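Task: fold both queries, return tokens.
Query 1:
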Amino acid sequence: LARLGGDEFALLIPNTNVEGASQLAQKILDKLRMIEFQSSGNVHNISASIGISIFPEHGSSVQDFMAHADLAMYQAKEAGRGRWHIFAPQDQARELLKTRVLWKEKIETALQEERFVLHYQPILDVGSHKISHAEALVRMIGCDGKLIMPGDFIPTAEHTGLINQIDLTVLKLAFKTLRTMRKANNSLKLSVNLSGRAFDNPELICFLKKELNESDIDAEKLIFEVTETTAVANFSAAKEMMAEIKKTGAKFALDDFGVGYASFYYLRQLPVDYIKIDGSFIRQLAKHKEDQVLVQAIAEISRISGKQTIAEFVEDQPILDLIKTYGIDYAQGYHIAKPSAELPIGS
């Protein structure tokens, strides 16, 4: 038995066959289901997904043998977790899973070699027409030195659980940026994205509190962004985590607002300070009357609720002029500035 990672184990079974391996896998799953433990007054269960590969039918090298067991494990997860799956070369999802395994290895290596960086996109205060804060956007540097955008690696990170390590890495980089800003007397606020998995990651909250306690960083300079969809999907955990983090003085922004369901109901329930109106309502704002009505409504309700608004994907002057007439507080998009490795200077 070997531990491969935080929640990954490999078991090598000599002198057995498919039937013996599958029976043992089922026995392990049955035993795990019987385990319960308590944390913060809640009862939790343990589950697992098991992938099985047979030597030498499924690989004559260690790399192929392990990769095929990994693929089978992902098949078990895709089927609903708490299951075992035997590797089959004809699996329809094999190529997708193989790609996911390759990306997983790339992400793990990049984490080990500290090849994640932040780029920054300025956010404009519409009233003063000055840059007020910046959104920190994570990028991965490939082995060839080229930048890899989050759309390429985040889906795999979310499926494999590596997103927790990326969240923590981004937070560490954000604090490094905040320390640099403080030394340079840069007055900008910094906005940092958190994944949906962050709601169940106590390590992240512990790290945040420790950093704030041990540094001179003003917590009010830090804004955490969570998407409306993930916040609603994990509503209780999101609400609890937001309340806990807000005790430090940090702020929250609800990203992609308007694309989820029951938006205005959850707007009242979640302790957020900023509403980021989804770019799908902003891109064609000057041309679409329906978008104009909706954006005005979001701006008005946010104002009544005591929330500030940020319009995403502001890509030309007519859109900027419109959102100013609607009373939207901030603008973000290519018309303001593109993301860059250079940190903007606060006014």
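Query 1 returned. Query 2:
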Amino acid sequence: MSEHAVLWEELTLDDALELAEKRGIIIVPVATTEAHGNHLPLGTDTYTAEWIALEISRKTGLPALVPTPVRAGASPTFHYDRNGDPVPGTLAVSHSTLHAFLKDIIRGLWTSGFRKVIIIQGHGQEPNLQVITQEVATELRRENKSVFIAAATYWELAAETLRREVTTPFYHSGEEETSNVLFVRPELVKLEKSIGKELVPLIDKSLLKKSITQDETETFQVFDIAQMIPIPEPGHRSAAGIGTTEQIKSATAEKGEKVLNRAVERYLDLIRDLEENYAPQEVPGSDVKQRPAAKRFAVNY
């Protein structure tokens, strides 16, 4: 483990090409800039994703695109008012814009020799990003530029730790996100300014998918429409920028540290698996059609 992360923008061209040849994996945080109540910075999601990316880079020596070029997200639920305008404090882009931007970035990384892209997802736009990564991978394959793209949210990867450590529902700007920022950028948290209130969903709560902080042991999943919330009036603060004062009281830097470090461990599991089984320039599912029967390479982290 190195004391310093490997930042893409600090590499020389020779450095970048050598890393591509010898490792072939790059870390790309994707987040957004948006309202997070009155107590958290607009860059909450970005700071979280970048911290994870930097920690992975320090532990593996892989390059990371930090600062992330993707600081504006595509999320209809969180980003727009009833007129379709971005809510105050939010930098919003369309699905097609985010698609085109990520495709161009990943194409550039491919031409530099990187065949595996690990996306660190810091914002709750996972439905959009899941579609976009599939679309981009397919389109680049048609250009004879096969690439492996993996994307996951940190809270999905750290779900068990999150359920154990976080005592309130997983709300936007709530206990968990506040804990993250208390850990990664404590000087930006203003707990005394929290004025959020719990949102009442537009349909009966019993029909909604449970919060990730609740134990989901039942086999039947109810409707995944937990974001069915009132759309804010024009010019109003984001209805999604809610973290109730009671939730925030439970936030601690220690909780954020445990959740984010668990997410890092899970990302490392994926990276280790890729490096043990595939050569730097091999693309799982394309150059290598089937998973190798045994580990082919040694990994020392």
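Both queries returned. Flag for query 2: The radius of gyration is 20 Å.
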